[in-house]
Specification:
It is globular and about 55 Å long. It is built from 6 helices and 14 strands. Helix 1 runs parallel beside helix 2. The two termini are 34 Å apart. The longest helix is centred in the N-terminal third of the chain and has 19 residues. Strands 1, 2, 3, 4, 5, 12, 13 and 14 form an 8-stranded mixed β-sheet that branches. With 258 residues, the chain is α/β, with parallel strands linked by helices.
Length: 258
Amino acid sequence: MELKLLAVGDVVASSGLDYLKSQLPALKREKHIDFCVVNGENTAVLGLTPQQADEILDAGADVITMGNHTWGRRELVPYIGRSRELLRPANLPPQQPGHGWGVYHRSFGDVAVIDLIGRCGMDYTPDNPFLQVERILSRLETKLIFVELHAEATSEKLAMGWMLDGMVSAVWGTHTHVQTSDNRILPNGTGYLTDLGMTGPRDSVLGIRPELSYKKFRGDLTGRYEPAPGPCKLEGCIFTVDSITGRCTDIERVRLSD
C-alpha cells in the first residue's frame, strides 16, 4: 500500500493562515493525502498562538512543527505542554516544555514525525541534531518516519538527508522560506527536499514587505517587520511512501498561488 504525506512550508502571518485554510482541504482531497505536516512557527509572524494552532489543525494538519520562533508567543507555552500534535525542535533544552517528536496511530499504521533545529547560523545553541535524531530513532519501531530540519544552512540539511538515507521515509528542510528544486529519492529510499518554501504573501521577501527588508540591508533605520499585502501562495512537498518498507517511491513539489 502506498501512502501520501504532504509537508507544507512555513505559514507566515494571518494572510498565510487564511490561504492555508482556503487551499489545504481541497489539496488533500485532490492528491489523496493520508497525513499532513505543517510548519506553523511564523503564523503570528514571530511565533504561533493557541488559536492559530487550532485553526491549522482544523484545516487538515495532523501535526504542526516549529523552529527558532517556537517561543515567540509565550501564550503558546501551556498549549504546547499538553498538545501531542504540536512539536517543537527535539534538540532544544530538555527542560523546555513540549515534545520534539511523536508517534501517531492511524488505520494504515503508526507514523513518526521528528522536528529538529539546525545549529549553523541560527540564533540558538541547541544540542547536536545529528546525535539527537539517532537517539530518537533507536526508540522507534515504525518504518514510517518523517524528519524536519529547521535550519539556515543548505549543507546542514543535505548532510542530515544523507545520514538518514535508508533509515527514515523522508527528510525535508524549513526556515529559509524559499522552495528548492532538489527534490529527489536518495539511493537507499529516503525522500529529500532541502526546503519546502513558505505559505503566505507571494510578493514579499520571505513574507515581509520588500521595502522593509531592502531598507534594512541598506542600513536605513526601519521599524518592525510587517507582512506584505496582496496575493498568497502555498508551497510544500508530497512524499509517496510504501507502507510496508517505509521507502519513498515518489516525490512531488507543490506550489499553489492566487
